[in-house]
Structures are given as C-alpha cells and as structure tokens.
Amino acid sequence: MEHIEVLEEIKTKIQNPTGMSEVFGDRVIIKTKNPKFKDFPPAMFVKGFLQDYEERVKNFKVYEDDVWLIGFPRSGTTLMQEIIWLILNDYDVEKAKSADTYNRAQWFDFFNVLHKIQGVDADYMDKMPRPRIFKTHLPVQFLPDQIWTVKPKMIHIHRDVKDVAISLYHLRKNSFHDDVGTMEEHFEQILNDRTWYTPYREHVLNYQRIPDYPNILYLTYEELLADKAGVIKQTAKFLNTPITEEQVQKLIDHSKFEKMQKNKTTNMQHYHELFNQLSNDNKPTDNFIRKGIVGDHKNAMSEETIKRFDEWWAQRTTLKPGYNK
Ligand code: A3P
C-alpha cells in the first residue's frame, strides 16, 4: 500500500480458523506516510478493515456538512451516534427505529467488512442522505485526506481507559470470538499497545493536538452519563441545531441504557447473530450494550492494576482519565 507502511503482521491465535478470522484477518501494525503526521506513532488494526485503504479511506470524499464522531472502541460511541443522529433528524425517535444506527450513522472503518459479508453497495457511504454522520475509531493520522481541507465538524469522545479495558475485553471475547486470552493478558495488550486500534493514549491525545482545527467538540463518556441533558444541549449547539427542553427529555428517554439495550436498531443483535454464525464456535455472546456504568473496572481490577493503569496514563498527560478538564 502506497500511503501506509505495514510494520508488522500478528497472526491470530485462533486454533480452528473460522469465517470470523477469514473476514477480519490478522492484526497489523501500520504507519502513515503522510508527512503531516510524521511523528505520530504506528497503530494496530484488524487487517480486514484495511482492504482498499486508499480508495475507501484515504481518498474518501468528504463534505462540509458531514459530522464525524470519533472515539476509541468502547468509549460510548454508539450512544453518541444515536444522539447525534436524532439531533440532525428532527428528534424523530420513530424514524430512528426504522434502520440500524450503524447504517444511519455509518461505522466508517467497518464498512469494508459489511461490504464483504453483507453485500452492501460499495458506494453506499457516498450516497448517504446529507448531512451524513460517520462514526470511526480511526486514529487521527488515518482519517481521509479531505478532512484536512474540507474541515467538517468532528466530535471526539473518550472514556477512562480502565473501563474501556474491561469493556473491550468482553467485546473481543464474547462478540467477536477473538482469541483474547485472560483478562490480565488483555490488560497487558492495552498497556503495551497490542490490541485493536491501540495505542490508546496516543489515540486520545493526538485528537487533542490537531493543528488548526476549530471544528471539534471534545466529550467524555463520564460527563455524558453524569449530565446527559447538558451534553445533549452542548452537542446540539455545536451542530447549530435548536433544541427545546421537551426534545432534550425525549432524547434522554430514548437513549436510556435499558432502552438502547432492548432496541434492535441500537443493540447490534443482528451483527452478533452474524458473528455467531461466522465463528461457529457455540460460545455465548454478551450484549453489545453491556453494563453502561462509570467505574466498572473497580469490580474487575486489583488495586495494583488500577495503579499501573493510572501511572501509565500519567506518563503522557496531566489530563484526568475520562475527563477533559
Ligand atoms: P460497557 O461495556 O462498559 O457497558 P462503544 O459504543 O463506543 O463501543 O461503547 C460501548 C460502551 O458504551 C459499553 O460499555 C456500552 O454498554 C456503553 N453504552 C452503550 N449504550 C449506552 C447507553 N445508552 N447508556 C450507557 N452506556 C451505554
């Protein structure tokens, strides 16, 4: 690939290759060749997400009225996808139930996989009704080039890495049937930048240091849960969309954890069914919308591990984990 360099390929450890490993493939560590980001670190991807990188990602056509929602996996992106879509679609919760959130606000980096396993049209994302909403986990240096000239609005959400670590473990193990190892092994993978989309710290911090980018709103999962009304209003304002108190309440209600967990257009259930079929290993599947609380790591991490994560984070930043200020 001309614009990215593959530094390393890490073979999946799956013993009996399944449809899942065929579609998603091994993990690769790649670096961008874009000089604008020359000092940005390499990142780890699922190989299947990178097919046709030039055509589908680097050269993707961007419009000024696009909205790009960005966050490391398990940072609350699905919840924000639903909120953003409703803000830009007249707060129409009935219409929201007519299609999957992952297609209304398309998961950008998953598109290659969707295209391959579900036969979704290759130009589906080009033709989405505008304003288009995309959700992506991509590190900043791998976004489409036109982002930097067209400058659409971006919303970045992050979450305390310790809760991300727990949540990602369950997702990889129980949804993606990935050979994730023990919980402790998975923690090591995060701390050593060896799991999907890592490095985590740089993912978050590099979005905070994009040069000359006025059009970005920074949110956290923690503040979203603590003050959903406030975050909804802040987001609507950022998207230049008026909102009434009644509409705020409607969104709060629609995006309640219990409701989103039951709602077939937000809970990823049919992808789970698909992943189950592909993986063919009869392993139980977790809810994608799993627990929805702040501080879940306290139930699963030792004091020592918590300290390790906090020190690891503090090596790079004075930002409090999960907080903007
Ligand atoms: P947990 O696994 O800790 O429960 P993403 O969508 O970025 O992958 O993030 C997934 C995390 O957001 C999961 O965290 C999930 O349960 C949580 N989440 C999804 N919808 C939610 C909601 N309506 N309210 C609270 N948390 C939600």
UniProtKB/TrEMBL annotation:
Similarity remark: Belongs to the sulfotransferase 1 family.
Key words, A-Z: Transferase
PANTHER family reported for this sequence: SULFOTRANSFERASE SULT
One example GO MF annotation: sulfotransferase activity
Organism lineage string: Eukaryota, Metazoa, Ecdysozoa, Arthropoda, Hexapoda
Annotated Sulfotransferase domain residues: 65-316
Name of the protein in its database record: Sulfotransferase domain-containing protein
A Pfam family it matches: Sulfotransfer_1
Species this chain originates from: Polypedilum vanderplanki (Sleeping chironomid midge)
InterPro entries: P-loop_NTPase, Sulfotransferase_dom
Range of residues in the leader sequence: none
Superkingdom of origin organism: Eukaryota
